[in-house]
Amino acid sequence: xxxxxxxxxxxxxxxxxxxxxxxxxxxxxxxxxxxxxxxxxxxxxxxxxxxxxxxxxxxxxxxxxxxxxxxxxxxxxxxxxxxxxxxxxxxxxxxxxxxxxxxxxxxxxxxxxxxxxxxxxxxxxxxxxxxxxxxxxxxxxxxxxxxxxxxxxxxxxxxxxxxxxxxxxxxxxxxxxxxxxxxxxx
Amino acid sequence: xxxxxxxxxxxxxxxxxxxxxxxxxxxxxxxxxxxxxxxxxxxxxxxxxxxxxxxxxxxxxxxxxxxxxxxxxxxxxxxxxxxxxxxxxxxxxxxxxxxxxxxxxxxxxxxxxxxxxxxxxxxxxxxxxxxxxxxxxxxxxxxxxxxxxxxxxxxxxxxxxxxxxx
Lengths: 186, 166
Known about the structure:
A: Rossmann fold; B: Rossmann fold; 6 strands
């Protein structure tokens, strides 16, 4: 499956959940699929999508909060998996688009071909951690996890297939922040 | 000396309601107070940059966060400040211990201690040196920066300002 197929599946499933998106092709590709005000596009600060998402989830315990992360980001901040598990926000869903490479910088390999990140998350203490490899598996897995008590983890294996001709996020960082905050706290 | 308990009360009195950090012995009294205070809900961060991310998310979710760290952690979190807080305009109050201040400390602290203020200035991070008489004044400046300019504000803490509990 291509990343874009996973994003299109996910786009149908999302409602008004605050969603923190990792830098690189994840933000860019999802922006081109569905540009919601609830999307916080992280353009720098690699590795921090997970901690930003944890902060939102803890500040807004009544709202389902999503992190749309990448394998490179998760590997860079593995300690944050422990923070998420220890804080145990019931409203947090951590989705990882795993293409096994740093695709936006030229597809250098990460370590996730050898390391199963959903097993790392499970061992850290996430309540549930699932792996899917086909587009039709995304909806049932997501629906199961969205009803479960968090923190939960969904790893979506994809092939490196980012279309670099796609535009970058056109909003300025301050616009991204304003829209995101307005969608949460009004 | 500044009482950790009184300073935590002042932070909460200024509306700060989310606390995380990576410890330093110079901040051990402060962290002990925060950990003893259920309402403060102090969260141990694994790294200082993760603390920066955590505070950024908490701020956007409606909190007024405080991040405690040793100045060694400033190096780890520099990219987070420059490519997250400073460009999105996401404020946070940073309480940073100034190890190596005046060149008297363990070897690993000497260089950062020497360049600490310079590095803050170069990065566009506004700061004040906290002392036992200026807490109210620097906290009101910090709050103004956080509310009006939406930038991080750092309070540098020298050895001996707070009681140490280790």
